[in-house]
Amino acid sequence: MIAPTILNNRYRVIRVLGSGGFGETFLAEDTQMPSGRRCVIKLLKPVVNNPQVYQLVKERFQREAAILEELGDGSNQIPRLYAYLVENDQFFLVQEYIEGQTLAEKLQQHGLLSESSVREILTNILPTLDYVHSKRIVHRDIKPENILIRNYDGKTVLIDFGAVKETMGTVMTASGNFSTSIVIGTPGFMPSEQTAGRPVFSSDLYSLGLTAIYLLTGKIPQQLASDPATGEILWRHHALSISPSFVSILDRAIASYPRDRYSSAKEMLQALQMGVPPIAPIIQPSNPISVSTPPPVPYAQPPKVVSATPAGFSSQQPVYSGRSPQNHGMNDWQKAVIIGGVIGVCVVAGLWLREQLPNPPQPSPSPTVVNVPTPSPTPSEPTRTISNIQPQSPSPSPVQPTFSPEPSPDIPSNTNTSSITTPFQPELTTTDAENLIYKWLQAKRVMFGRNYDPQPASELTVDPLYEGTAGANGSINSLKRDGEYYEYPLQRIDSVDYFDVNGSEATIQLKVTEDRKLYKRNGDINPNETDFKTRTVIYKLKFDDDRWKIASFEIIKD
What we know:
CATH topology of the domain at 100-173 and 180-276: Transferase(Phosphotransferase), domain 1
Distance between the termini: 51 Å
Helix content: 25-40%
Largest sheet: 6 strands, antiparallel
CATH superfamily of the domain at 100-173 and 180-276: Transferase(Phosphotransferase) domain 1
């Protein structure tokens, strides 16, 4: 197949991106857009050259294109469809060009991914897959090459749906009926029911599970052995550092039979969110995972943190804490003697301390919470600490409570405990802050461009910057109302001049170079808002919703 240099008198082909059994993919630019917007052109070819088949393929191609348009408009993690064309008996799709890196490329450049990175990828792609399935569509070709990590926000993007390929594979049988001549999917990544031409929703989960295993082990499915008795794929010995809960999730996703897998992408996502290994050690189940046994049922509830061996568990079982268990050579009776001695010392010390206080204060009727910092004392309230407890004179008219709980022998109930509670301090490095600003610069291309997409603002900003960007009177809606948009041919961070973190807030000052162009509704460039400058900008950052975001910025040198 040979692609035209100019398609539909509009799209100019720049270079070839790839080729396969169904056609070729090209990078092109839209010559009828002032920005020369980049796009992807897919040139598709039917497998047979038959007039009757050609007409049917043409009808099906139109139907599948409409589905792709709906999917792209409903999710920003699926490329948008700009056009579909039939020209010179050739079929073309024109889609949004996503600047990013496929999972296959990411593995080749950076090596094996960590469990946390793969969890994040799955957590990010599963809602998109759930949306696709809600439209009664099975993707059918999920693999590392068909999942992109978008540059500007790090989100996953699902590309290259198999439905159009199936349309191109339409043939006419000897009886005059139409059918699909080939199986859609990639060998190794598709399950047996898909190989037989009967894909179901969990077929996509099977492919996604094997994609995750590839990222963890570097092994494609054909390089993994299987149990000849059960058909179970034997992969765990290639990734020994993976937590048991994550092993269970992936094993269920790649189960041989659809009934043994997750019933939906949403169910798999819930298992991921519930099965995150806790920080504290947990006791492993009594049937530890082995490559010679069928995969166990994943956790139905989050693993519970325990401080002693519960009933039903052997005291000799290993403890999972992220590293190999150690044998300290101490018997159970020795542990009991030590623990009993410690408790006895605490009790005696508490009784002695009470004897030294001539007028112990009356405990509060309600139990005291000792793990919450108390407010700073006012001048009328003397500070009380464990090492300096002042006797308190009894009240002239003491009220005798009906229930008086005993104060803790370790910490008196009236003790100021702010000195023993350490507030959470979120971490932020200079590199992390610089990467956040770079994501913001990249996000401006879609927020203030022709897409007017407010989604990055919710992920990268908090008020007041969020309101000024995506609010009712924010920049995005203002540009949209005026029919104007920006293009940013160049964006870069030249240097970091200052950086400081104070608790949950931070400040970073950078020199940023941008080439920006503002286009009017009629396509002309607005010279007042078009420039190529290096600016010094101060960004205020805030830790919100378990991540660092941008709260505001100020240009101090233009």
